[in-house]
Amino acid sequence: MRRFRLLIAFLAAVALAVSVAVSAGPVVSARAAPAKLPVITTFTRNHFPESLAIDGQGNLYASLDYIGQVVKVTPGGQQHLVASFDVGAGFLTGLAFDPSGNLYVADATFEASPTPPGVFRISAGGTVTRVATLPTFSFPNGLAFHDGDLYISDSSLGVIWRLPPGGKAAIWLKDPLLAPKTTRGIGVNDEAFRRDSLYVSVSDSGMIARVPLTTGGNAGVPVVVAQSPMLRTDDGIAFDIKGNLYITVNVNRLVRLAPDGGLTQLAAKNNGLAFPDGPAFGTTPTTRTTLYITNGAFHGGTPDIVAFDAGVRGLPLP
Q1: Alpha-carbon span 21 to 106, nearest angstrom
Q2: Of the candidates 72, 70, 112, the residue with the CA atom closest to the CA atom of residue 89
Q3: CATH 2.40.180.10 describes domain 2-309
Q4: Which of 62, 135, 127 is nearest to 93 (CA)?
Q5: pLDDT at 205
Q6: Are 175 and 155 in contact (CB under 8 A)?
Q7: What's the whole-number mean pLDDT along residues 186-193?
Q8: Whole-angstrom Cα distance, residue 262 to residue 225?
Q9: What percent of the chain has pLDDT over 90?
Q10: pLDDT score of 31
């Protein structure tokens, strides 16, 4: 939706104006970014690759949000259209695979009809099925699976929905920490599970929060793990096996949050970041330490996918 495009531009300008002192927390298996991050593939200008998911064969799947397409990028860099969606006044956002290899995509249309916001499943054979329908002003964004349930972050309503297999989406958590700062803000954004906690990025607040799961899988009380001006406009998140959280920040930063809370900037615009959005670790023996990142290039540059060698294997997803 145009108001969200303008909001993103505004937030980026504000964050760029903030003088940020980087926290020198303990470094865990630090890898300096090369002068330029390797480019895996590029996209047409304004196609805006957003979220990223990777299958077991190492194929990368990107949501091209404004044009409503999901594309597969082979290990050799070739692109193939997987599915197209009606995005209404909005865009495609999060992607996630379930344990059976079906791919899920969030569609933030911001319209009541003919296509309300929701989530779709793309089967291995290419069949597209709507699995969740959300209120008109929902902004479904990040997707994550845990114990068979799909968790959907809602950036405008400031809630997290839970979708059980074959069931209906219901609000799992609503908390002020997840809410946007203004009526047109962006609250809770991406999600990642580690052990029995859900970690989320909150864009307006420059925050990472942890939501413990209680007995029965209910949401516990959210806890702020990190909050800093350097995380303002934080977007995608991904864990490595040592508990480090990698965070893409739209104002051209890749930041690592260590288990002790230390923040370290790993890459920036000069390394090839251009409105970075979705990070995901590789899944094959030769790419498990590689963090792939989509560059939306919202403020210039080339939309693409780049690779960062984290030096630590990514945490396997369920």
Answers
A1: 35
A2: 112
A3: no
A4: 62
A5: 96
A6: no
A7: 98
A8: 10
A9: 83
A10: 55
